[in-house]
Structure formats: structure tokens, C-alpha cells
Design goal:
Glutamine Phosphoribosylpyrophosphate, subunit 1, domain 1; Rossmann fold; 3 domains; eight-stranded antiparallel sheet; 25 strands; binds 5-amino-5-deoxy-1-O-phosphono-D-mannitol; carbohydrate derivative binding; aminotransferase; GFAT_N; EC 2.6.1.16; glutamine-fructose-6-phosphate transaminase (isomerizing) activity
Length: 610
């Protein structure tokens, strides 16, 4: 999705803006641009299609010098990726604007502004906002007042940053439905759609709330809320260290993030579990009261986070005996629901800014759910701020578009939550202790799997020339298979479908032949014998099997069956551990195919539009 950076400083801002854009590249984009107000009070602009590197070349050849500037990476929604559609957009020669989000009533505003004589050079919704602000500026003579007046006409979602050459000492920013953070410096201030963009220049951040409008100057930050009341927003410190957004020794962020999993799973457990118990106070002071009264759980999420929710359903129903429903946010938000009394609404999101998930949460809050719990990885995100209770995962910044460490830390947090809920619903103390002990073993087991990397890389060669694949699992391993299939399709572009293995004979078996690799996750559990029969069905049709199993599962390596032996794992924690080899498999297939592993085509890291 689009990214925004802005700076007002005593020093030249071009370098700050460029570095900020580079750090936003992971979000996915198709063009980039910047506008700087120079010493002669002129607004200069550069825009390029393609990578930020192309913009860097352009501004190296013709520098944009000045102390106030805004910049943007665009992910096309209205109008093709092109230079004229790239941001910043301008009205006349002096006002420039960058925008994240979608203006739903842009066509009506465009017609109106055209009739008033404004000329449009792009197909974007953003240019409409630029002209609308300029129109008010001509009447009101102050940028802040003009932005305030203009946004009353906007319907949709936006984070905006606006500069005007007549007011070269500040920018005006606002947000409604799209994230915006202010980076607090010393004698300089910054804004961005994501704090990662600003880590080289500050570690202190103020998250704007919905409806906020702010005047950002070198030495002051003035914020007003939707009602026009002056407000203070807390300053929080970024805790993960500036280098957490660097690849280090790794070839790709995705690989680095896969290898970070033992550490971040452990960090997600810290302070929340003892050797044998979950510390439910660590889930918040309200947790005990809430958990006592939960009779049903409704989980909402998208993509990988949805798969985490699917695993959690098995845990919640098995360990807590509480009915649990799971739905993708984009479906949930557009249908009528029958809400069971005392239903806990649980949102899962790495970014905390996914538009569909946020919309579902907002709807749920109005609809009468008992409370909203968020499992999220980004402190200060909209989801965190708008939920009643939050369990933060400790994955640290996840840059690769393909989610890896966010998923396994979500599962860790969800298991901790499940055990707390289960205790309120009669889970025996020794069972809780058994599972907590198993959870403590997970970081070590994940490290053991990482040590199998070379073998998994070898296995990946069999997928390189394939166009389709199937992923099978049963029980709580079915969502693991779904996650494995999602990873493979999003970064290698190989069509991958996941099925509960028992469904094979109801249709997908017709697809199986020697050109269709079948990946199976098969830890030893109550279902493994049934799963083995399903594998025989595949073999009998000439299918080639790639099986991840522990020794006691008893799956033998033979013609047509490749077995990767994994450590023995507790049945409950197995979904966390079995995910990791599938991440590595997809990674290596993508590297062999030469795709853009960290920024796969057409995808964005944080999906802030519907
Ligand atoms: O930030 P979120 O967890 O809400 O994001 C949800 C999905 O967009 C995300 O998990 C997506 O499916 C990933 N690219 C999967 O790797």
C-alpha cells in the first residue's frame, strides 16, 4: 500500500525523505515521488515510475533542496501506475499533497472542481483533494484552515500531508481511516504512515487518532481532534532498535524473519507464562473478569492472521470447551450476524491497520459483542488503540510481505490466551502445566527445524518447474497446510491449494498426477493413520508426496514419497512448529524461480484500503 514521509527541519530534507521511502518499500508500490519547498519559496517536485532507486537517481541528478518536504510511494488504486498519477499531486505551482487511502466521492468533487475551472492532470482521487484545499486556501489564506475546511467534504479514508510554498515553515497533516504517525525530533519533526520510515531520525512517536488534524513545525506539534479541541497525544518510544528494519547478513528480509522465530516466540511468552502456568494478569487487569464471562469467541482476521485464527479455533474448543467461530474480515463486515450472548470479539492482525479487520471491529463494537480483544504486532496501531484488551506479539518489525514470524508469534499469543480462557472453564492444572511446558520447548524445536534448511532447499528443486500444488493436513494441521499454500502462491506464483486430507476423494483427487506435487504435514496424532490412507490415495494416482512428519508418525521414505523428519512435538504446539518448514520450502522455491521474495508482485504489506 502507499507510504507517506514528511519532514520539517533546519537541514536539507531530501535525504531524510529518500531514506524514509526506502524503508517503506516493503509495503509494495509502483511509483515514488517527493516535493520540497526550497529556499526561494518554490515547490519543486520529482516523480518516477518504478523503484525508489529511480527517484533517487532523478533527485541526485537534480537535487530538491529545502527544509520542508513530503514524499510518497504509490500503490495504484485510481489510474494506472504512471508519472502523472504518482504523488505528490499539486494544485497550481505551490501547493503539494501526498495521500494514503481512497476518496470515495472523488468523481462528484472532480466534476464540481472542473466546473469551477480547476484543471486535472491525473486520474487519481488525490488530485481532487489538492484542488479542493487550494480552493479553500484562496478564500481563507491559511493552509491549516484550508485543510480543515476541505476535509469536511471528503468521504472515504485518508492520511494527508500538505505543504504550500507561501507557508514554508510547516506542513498540515490529518488522518481518517489511514494511519499517520508523527516522529518527534529535536528542532525538527517528521511524519510518516509507518514509524519504520523514520527510525534513522527519531525513536519517539506520536500516533494521530481518527479525525485528528495537526500543524507540524520545526519546534512545535499542534493537534486538534475532530471537534476542533486542542489535544495532546502520548509520545511512545520505539523499542526494537533501528537496525531491526535492516536485512543484516541475510539475503532477504523473509529469510531473516524466518530465522528470528525462536527469539520472537520466546519474547512473546516472556512475562506471560511461568514454567507451568499462564499469568493471566499479564493479559490485562480486566482479563480475569472478562474471561470468566466469555461463552463464545468470534475471531476475525485476513490472510495469514486468519489462518492463525483457524488454528486457535481447534485449541479454544478443545481446551476451553468454548464455541469459536472464525471468519475473514471482508466477509464478516458485509453480512448480518446472530450474536450469541457473552461473545468475545477477537481480531488478529500483524499490522493493526488492515482496513477490513478495522471495519469489522468498528462494526462489532456497535453490534453488542461483550468486548474486543486484539492480537497485534504493532504498538500504537489503530487496532490496538480501538480494542478493549490487547495481547501484543513481540515479533518486531516484519518487513517481508509474506508473513512468517508474525504468524508463529500470533499462534503463541493465541495459545496463551486459550490457556487463560480454559482455566476459567475448568482445564485441569496438570493439563495446563503440560501444555505450558510444551510451549517452552517450541523455540528450541523451531531452531532444530531451521537446522534442516539445506534439506528443505534440496526438496524445493522439485517445485521449480511446477504450475500447481496441493497442501494437505488434518485437524489443527489443516490451517497449517492453508498457510503453507498461501506462502507458496504469494512468493513463488505457483498455484497452491490446501485441503483437509479427508476431502481429497471428494474432488481434488481428480487433479493428482505426476505434475502435481502434494505437500503434507503429518505429525503423529490421533489422525495420522487416517492421513496415511489419504496419502496412499495420492500415490495410487502417481502423485509425488512431500511429507513433513516426526519419526513416530511412521511415514516411510520410498518411491514417490519424500519425507522430511521433524522433531517430536506436543500435539497442541505442533501447528507452530510445522509451519516453519513450509515457510522455508516456499522461500527456496521463490529464490530458485527468481521472484521478488520480499515484495511479491501485486501485493502490499499493510492492506489499508478495502
Ligand atoms: O496485517 P494483517 O495481519 O492484518 O494482514 C493480513 C493479511 O494481509 C496478511 O496476513 C497477508 O495475507 C500476508 N501477505 C500473508 O503472508
Amino acid at each position: 500500500m502507499c507510504g507517506i514521509v514528511g519532514a520539517v527541519s533546519e537541514r536539507d530534507v531530501q535525504g531524510i525523505l529518500l531514506e524514509g521511502l526506502r524503508r517503506l518499500e516493503y509495503r509494495g508500490y509502483d511509483s515514488a515521488g517527493m516535493a520540497v519547498v526550497n529556499g526561494s519559496n518554490q515547490t519543486q517536485r520529482a516523480r518516477e515510475v518504478g523503484k525508489v532507486a529511480a527517484l533517487a537517481d532523478a533527485v541526485t541528478a537534480h537535487p530538491l533542496e529545502g527544509h520542508l518536504g513530503i514524499a510518497h510511494t504509490r500503490w495504484a488504486t485510481h489510474g494506472v501506475p504512471s508519472q502523472v498519477n504518482a504523488h505528490p499531486h499539486m494544485s497550481g505551482e505551490r501547493l503539494a499533497i501526498v495521500h494514503n487511502g481512497i476518496i470515495e466521492n472523488y468523481q462528484e468533487l472532480r466534476d464540481e472542481l472542473k466546473a469551477e475551472g480547476f484543471e486535472f492532470t491525473s486520474q487519481t482521487d488525490t488530485e481532487v483533494v489538492a484542488h479542493l484545499i487550494e480552493k479553500h486556501y484562496r478564500k481563507l489564506g491559511k493552509l491549516y484552515d484550508a485543510v480543515k475546511a476541505a476535509i469536511t467534504r471528503l468521504r472515504g479514508a485518508y492520511a494527508l500531508s500538505v505543504v504550500h510554498a507561501d507557508e514554508p515553515d510547516h506542513m498540515v497533516v490529518c488522518r481518517e481511516g489511514s494511519p499517520l504517525v508523527v516522529g518527534v525530533g529535536i528542532g525538527e519533526n517528521f511524519i510518516a504512515s509507518d514509524q519504520l520510515a523514520l527510525l534513522p531520525v527519531t525513536d519517539r512517536f506520536m500516533f494521530l487518532e481518527e479525525g485528528d488534524i495537526a500543524d507540524i513545525r520545526r519546534n512545535s506539534i499542534e493537534i486538534h481532534d475532530r471537534e476542533g479541541t486542542p489535544v495532546e497525544r502520548d509520545i511512545t518510544r520505539f523499542e526494537h532498535g533501528a537496525d531491526s528494519a535492516d536485512k543484516g547478513e541475510y539475503r532477504h528480509f523473509m529469510l531473516k524473519e524466518i530465522y528470528e522465530q525462536p527469539k520472537v516466540i520466546k519474547a512473546t511468552m516472556e512475562g506471560r507464562v511461568t514454567g507451568s502456568r499462564v499469568l493471566e494478569q499479564a493479559l490485562g487487569t480486566e482479563a480475569a473478569n472478562l474471561l470468566d464471562n466469555v461463552r463464545h469467541v468470534q475471531i476475525i482476521a485476513c490472510g495469514t492472521s486468519y489462518h492463525a485464527g483457524m488454528v486457535a479455533r481447534y485449541w479454544i474448543e478443545e481446551l476451553a470447551g468454548v464455541p469459536c467461530s472464525v471468519e475473514v474480515a471482508s466477509e464478516f463486515r458485509y453480512r448480518k450476524h446472530v450474536i450469541q450472548p457473552d461473545t468475545l470479539f477477537l481480531c488478529i492482525s500483524q499490522s493493526g491497520e488492515t482496513a477490513d479487520t478495522l471495519a469489522a471491529l468498528r462494526q462489532a463494537k456497535k453490534a453488542g459483542f461483550r468486548a474486543a480483544l486484539a492480537i497485534c504486532n504493532v504498538p500504537g496501531s489503530s487496532l490496538v488503540r480501538e480494542s478493549d484488551l490487547v495481547i501484543m506479539t513481540q515479533a518486531g518489525p516484519e518487513i517481508g510481505v509474506a508473513s512468517t514470524k508474525a504468524f508463529t508469534t500470533q499462534l503463541t499469543a493465541l495459545l496463551i490466551f486459550t490457556l487463560a480462557l480454559a482455566r476459567h472453564n475448568g482445564l485441569a492444572e496438570d493439563k495446563e502445566a503440560e501444555i505450558v511446558k510444551a510451549l517452552h520447548l517450541v523455540p528450541g524445536q523451531v531452531s532444530d527445524i531451521l537446522a534442516l534448511n539445506a534439506g528443505i532447499e534440496e526438496m524445493s528443486k522439485a517445485f521449480m518447474d511446477k504450475f500447481h500444488s496441493l497442501f494437505l493436513g488434518r485437524g489443527s494441521q489443516f490451517p497449517v497446510a492453508m498457510e503453507g499454500a498461501l506462502k507458496l502462491k504469494e512468493i513463488s506464483y505457483i498455484h497452491a491449494e490446501a485441503y483437509p486430507a479427508g476431502e481429497l476423494k471428494h474432488g481434488p483427487l481428480a487433479l493428482v498426477d505426476s505434475e502435481m506435487p502434494v505437500v503434507t504435514v503429518a505429525p503423529n496424532n490421533d489422525l495420522v493413520e487416517k492421513l496415511k490412507s489419504n496419502l496412499e490415495e495420492v500415490r495410487a494416482r502417481g502423485g509425488e508426496l512431500f511429507v513433513f512428519a516426526d519419526k513416530s508418525a511412521g511415514v516411510q521414505e520410498e518411491e514417490g514419497i519424500h519425507v522430511m523428519q521433524l522433531p517430536e512435538v506436543h500435539e497442541i504446539t505442533a501447528p507452530i512448529v510445522y509451519t516453519v518448514p513450509l515457510q522455508l520450502l516456499s522461500y527456496h522455491v521463490a529464490v530458485l524461480k527468481g521472484t521478488d521474495v520480499d515484495q511479491p508482485r501485486n501485493l502490499a504489506k499493510s492492506v489499508t484500503v478495502e
